[in-house]
Specification:
Number of domains: 1
Order of helices and strands: EHEHEEHEHHH
Helix content: 25-40%
CATH architecture: 3-Layer(aba) Sandwich
Number of strands: 5
Radius of gyration: 16 Å
CATH topology: Rossmann fold
Amino acid sequence: MTVGSVHGRFQPFHNGHLEYVLAAQRLCDFLWIGITKCDIAPVDSVQPGRSRERPENNPLTFFERLEIIAEALTSLGIDRGAFGFVPFPIENPERLHEFMPVLVPCYTTICEPWNEEKIQTLKKAGYDVRVLYRKEPKTVTGSHIRRDIVAGSESWKGLVPDATVRAVERLQLRDRLLRLQTGSVTDTVTL
């Protein structure tokens, strides 16, 4: 049985993420989906000033992201037994081995400079990194989707799987994002 892995913040899971996950899924019998920034609470990190570390850019919990991705994949007919989830703390690379053995290849893409940095981090940690494709500039971003949600726009709905649309509405993600932007304490809502 061939096993592989993908990883990302998936804040929220969008069509670019789906394309990436499906490309890797076609290459293996079982796919581990690593959720980075699995602890959304602000912490001291290697790069504390990065936009990706800010709470307003990480509104969804580990479990919420897991459920969205699982629903998106199973709705396409992918067997739930063909993939699993694991925390993937790329922001603390010394801890990666606690969650994913180095024997599992890491599939990735190159869509922005962060991807190149991530590849080097994974290689330095001993992982076999396999680039699926290069697509620059990135056409869909989580930050663009989050901004559209906050603005009350509907255009983001065409950029995400139906599972994400349903979750954003059910979780009242717009309200959560607005609270995070104003620095209010977030309430954790599970699916």
